[in-house]
Task: inverse folding
């Protein structure tokens, strides 16, 4: 490069969802959200919680890009984040060094961060679990990162195969992570109500002894039988 870039670049001024809109996603299952969004919206299957028993969260994304094997972007996100934010870190899905460890996770928990999500790796798993911060990664490795930069905070990223903008609504549970674009959030929230109602009806039927559904019966009735 002709000029060395700054170690950290921060983009500010993104729109944030209202507290009322966020509450409509509180407790939502990621599978239900994917159903509403026509099968889309989930990060790559490898991005999973370090602790499935402490995986439920919802909050607005604060995005960051950390160069592979570097943590400057993560430091920048920690400095910029507000209580309730979900820090989403892209790093070209590099798994050879950690994007987060127990010390940084503890500071995020102290600051009130709702969750940390990366397509990269973590280290110090036992220490991270002890912080109580929901952390989603694609791997666990013992290798530490450098802090040389450059890194970026607040700009759009692609993380876990999804485009993520700061302010998008991020929801996690034991199944994984779903991102709801902010400009679609009202419509998705309305669809979520319908999916929840349909799911509750189906579960009640199973609890009452059901072994099939009308759709299953129709498919079976129309099947071609050979032999």
Result:
């Amino acid at each position: 490069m002709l000029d060395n870039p700054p170690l950290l670049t921060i983009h500010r001024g993104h729109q944030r969802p209202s507290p009322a809109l966020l509450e409509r996603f509180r407790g939502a299952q990621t599978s239900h959200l994917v159903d509403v969004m026509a099968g889309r919206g989930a990060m790559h299957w490898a991005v999973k919680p370090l602790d499935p028993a402490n995986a439920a969260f919802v909050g607005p994304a604060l995005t960051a890009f950390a160069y592979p094997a570097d943590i400057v972007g993560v430091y920048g996100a920690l400095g910029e984040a507000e209580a309730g934010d979900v820090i989403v870190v892209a790093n070209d899905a590099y798994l050879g060094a950690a994007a987060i460890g127990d010390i940084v996770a503890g500071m995020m928990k102290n600051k009130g961060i709702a969750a940390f999500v990366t397509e990269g790796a973590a280290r110090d798993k036992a220490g991270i679990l002890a912080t109580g911060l929901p952390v989603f990664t694609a791997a666990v490795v013992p290798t530490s990162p450098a802090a040389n930069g450059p890194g970026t905070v607040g700009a759009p990223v692609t993380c876990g195969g999804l485009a993520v903008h700061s302010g998008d609504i991020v929801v996690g549970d034991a199944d994984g992570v779903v991102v709801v674009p902010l400009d679609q959030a009202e419509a998705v929230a309305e669809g979520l109500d319908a999916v929840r109602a349909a799911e509750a009806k189906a579960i009640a039927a199973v609890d009452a002894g059901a072994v099939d559904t009308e759709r299953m019966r129709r498919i079976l009735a129309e099947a071609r039988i050979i032999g």
